[in-house]
Write a structure and sequence with these properties.
57% of the residues lie in helices and 9% in strands. It starts with a strand and ends in a 10-residue tail after the last helix. The chain is mainly alpha-helical and 308 residues long.
Length: 308
C-alpha cells in the first residue's frame, strides 16, 4: 500500500497521506501556514462535526440533498462528533481569519469518510463532494462563528460550570464545618480583629457563586447561531427556513437551547458575545487567583498566615 494518494483542487493535484481522510486544501494549508504548534482544539472540531451533521439533516428536510448522500454525511459527521477522527484535523489556529482551512478540513474529512462508507474511492469526490454536498448551504463565514458558539457553550455546560459548582460546594461545606473555628483576622498582612475560619471561607464560596452567575449570564448571547447567513449575512444559496431548521437540529444533537441569530449581519461581522464571555472568564480567573493567594498566605505561618 502506498504511503500517499493524489487529491486535487483548483490548483491541481497534490500528494496527501494515504492513511488520512483530509484532502488537497487541508494539505495546502499545512504547507502555507507553518506557524506554531497550536492545533484547533478538540471541542471546536466536535462543533464542526455538529454543524456538518445538522446541515446535512436540514438540507434533506428541505429537499436540497438526496437521502443517501445526506445520511452518509451524517454518519461520517457523527464520527467527528464522537472524536473518532480527531487525528484527521492537523491544522494550526494560525490561518486565515474566517477559518476557511478548518472548514474545508472538516468538509474533506467528512466527504472522504462518507465516500468510504458508501463503498467509493477516497479522494474521488464521488459520490460525495466536500464543497457541493458537505458544505452545501454554508460558508466559512457563518460556519466558523457558529462553531465558536457551539464549542464555547458545550464547554461551559459540560466542563466549566460543573467544575465551578463543585468547587463552590466544597468551599461552602468548609465554611459550615469551620463556622466555630476562631482565628486572627488579617488586613494588609497584619493582625486584625478576629473572625471565624468559616466566615472567611464563606466569602470564597460567595465569590464562586457570583462567578457562576456571571458565566451563566453570557449564555443567552451565545445560544444564537450565525449559520444560515452564508458569506455576508444575506443567506444567499440557502433554502428558505434553513437557518431555523438548522438551529433546531443543533439543539437536538447537543441537547442545548441553540437558536438562529435574529440578525445574521451582527452574528457574522461581530463577536461581541465571545468578548462578553472572555470578560466573565477573566473575572472568574481573578477570583480564583485571589482565593488561591489567600489560602497560600493562610498556610504560610503557625498562627494566621505569615510566620513573622
Amino acid at each position: 500500500m502506498s504511503e500517499t494518494r493524489t487529491e486535487t483542487d483548483s490548483f491541481g493535484p497534490l500528494k496527501v497521506p494515504a492513511d488520512k481522510y483530509w484532502g488537497a486544501q487541508t494539505q495546502r494549508s499545512l504547507g502555507n501556514f507553518k506557524i506554531g504548534t497550536e492545533t484547533m482544539p478538540a471541542p471546536l472540531v466536535r462543533a464542526l462535526g455538529v454543524i456538518k451533521k445538522a446541515a446535512a439533516l436540514t438540507n434533506m428536510d428541505l429537499k436540497n440533498l438526496d437521502r443517501k448522500t445526506g445520511q452518509a454525511i451524517s454518519k461520517a459527521a457523527n464520527e467527528v462528533i464522537d472524536g473518532k477522527l480527531n487525528d484527521n484535523f492537523p491544522l494550526v489556529v494560525w490561518q486565515t481569519g474566517s477559518g476557511t482551512q478548518s472548514n474545508m478540513n472538516a468538509n474533506e474529512v467528512i466527504a472522504n469518510r462518507a465516500i468510504e462508507l458508501l463503498g467509493g474511492k477516497i479522494g474521488s469526490k464521488d459520490p460525495v463532494h466536500p464543497n457541493d454536498h458537505v458544505n452545501r448551504s454554508q460558508s466559512s463565514n457563518d460556519t466558523f462563528p457558529t462553531a465558536m458558539h457551539i464549542s464555547a457553550v458545550e464547554q461551559l455546560h459540560h466542563a466549566l460550570i460543573p467544575a465551578l459548582e463543585h468547587l463552590q460546594g466544597a468551599l461552602a461545606a468548609k465554611a459550615k464545618e469551620w463556622r466555630k473555628t476562631l482565628k486572627i483576622g488579617r488586613t494588609h498582612l497584619q493582625d486584625a480583629t478576629p473572625l471565624t475560619l468559616g466566615q472567611e471561607f464563606s466569602g470564597y464560596a460567595a465569590q464562586l457563586k457570583l462567578s457562576i452567575e456571571r458565566v451563566k449570564a453570557t449564555l443567552p448571547r451565545l445560544y444564537p447561531l450565525a449559520q444560515g447567513g452564508t458569506a455576508v449575512g444575506t443567506g444567499l444559496n440557502t433554502k428558505k427556513g434553513f437557518d431555523k431548521t438548522f438551529a433546531a437540529h443543533v439543539a437536538k444533537i447537543t441537547k442545548l437551547p441553540f437558536k438562529t441569530a435574529p440578525n445574521k449581519f451582527e452574528a457574522l461581522a461581530a463577536h461581541d458575545a465571545m468578548v462578553e464571555l472572555s470578560g466573565a472568564l477573566n473575572v472568574v480567573a481573578v477570583s480564583l487567583f485571589k482565593i488561591a493567594n489567600d489560602i497560600r498566605l493562610l498556610g504560610s505561618g503557625p498562627r494566621s498566615g505569615l510566620g513573622e
